[in-house]
Amino acid sequence: MQHNHGYLEIEPYTFLLLLGGFVALLAAIVPVVLQKKYLSPPIIYLVLGTIAFFVCSQNNIEPLDHLEEVKHITEFVILIALVNTGLRIKDPFKWNTWKNAVRLLAITMPLTIVAASFLGWWIIGLAPATAMLFGALIAPTDPVLASELQTSEPGQEDRSKSKLGLTAEAGINDGLAFPFTYFAIFAAQKGLDYENWIGEWFLHEFVIKITIGVGIGLLTGWGLYKLIFSLSEKDDKLSRISRGILSVALILLPYTITEYFGGYGFLAVFFAACMFSNYEKHQHHMLDLHDFNEELESFAVAVIFITIGFFIAVNYEILFDVEILAVSLLMVIIVRPATGYIALVKTELNPFQKFVLSFYGMRGIGSLYYLAYALTAAQFAQTEKLIAITTATIFFSVLIHGITARFVQKRIKKYDFNHNNTGS
């Protein structure tokens, strides 16, 4: 047998690195090319993932075989996005910053969970615990993909109440989805007789773990800020501190410490970043941190949505299933806008601002994380249907919100300009 000395051969690991290089190139180019277009990068990645299926392979991807990988990748992307979201929020500890977001968190989120659970059970026929899980994972507004309508970068003035409300909501509700995800897990593990376990759930999964997450987040954020900026100011070393390394510390330290104590690490990371953004003195360095995280986030988003596009191409029939189509479109077009509007009824916001805050929820990387997390924590019935409806809802959310977000962004700028100039 003739040996070819390794020419024109590639090992699987090397092939993955090659793919990673192409994805990194896409992540660098696509957002710039689409900067003034009506398409968002995730839409392009979905299309590219679909094309990749037909070009590269005809092999099926079975999501249930890769839940751990999905969980860890999406978890890391969310952590990066939560730091970015926290750094964006100006005056994070003033009531005026949170007054609209609190309504979305206290009213819209529970109503969305109930509505999604009911639709999943009634139309698709999901088992009760599985339907509850669908409600919990689809309710949060994604801090990753809502970036087109997030408030301005650190140090930049932004008076848009709608964008500020979406940013604040997205920052905190990914952490608040955990208790409701655990509610579904408890129902799957302990049965539907909730009177036997609801007290335990409320005390541990809701009260204690949220308190630990917020408390450790604030404490570690304050400690990191004081440590970095007090030490570096003494001999002007601040400019030499790596924004990348500091960013990783701001993600990993609050998260791991909080997880060790049993709290919700997502909340801790967000509030640690809020503690940084509370100090205006070093806005330039906050912007550096934000920019570095945004670059990491762009790469990870490209990886995830190319993969989702591949999966949709493999299982394209889910988009033609009438029941799945009905529920996913109802969630995006009816349920989230209606529950959002209900929450904002008695506010000073005008109808356009209420529409923006109500309509632009969901999208999906957080939903993928909670899906993978719950399915690795407990046994749920009808997991294939759950994965199908979750994927379809993410697909339509990315498509509808992504295409319309640029138009709405322009309307927001025009409205805010006229509103601020007239002083009304």
UniProtKB/TrEMBL annotation:
Pfam annotation, one family: Na_H_Exchanger
Mode of membrane association: Multi-pass membrane protein
Major subcellular site: membrane
UniProt domain Cation/H+ exchanger transmembrane: residue ranges: 25-408
Record localization: Cell membrane
A Gene Ontology biological process term: proton transmembrane transport
CC per GO annotation: plasma membrane
Gene Ontology molecular-function annotations: antiporter activity
Transmembrane residue ranges: 12-34, 43-61, 101-124, 206-229, 263-279, 299-318, 324-345, 357-380, 386-408
Keyword terms, alphabetized: Antiport, Ion transport, Membrane, Transmembrane, Transmembrane helix, Transport
PANTHER family referenced in this protein's UniProt entry, alphabetically: CNH1P, NA(+)/H(+) ANTIPORTER 1
Protein name (Swiss-Prot/TrEMBL): Sodium:proton antiporter
Organism (species): Flavobacterium zepuense
Source species taxonomy: Bacteria, Pseudomonadati, Bacteroidota, Flavobacteriia, Flavobacteriales
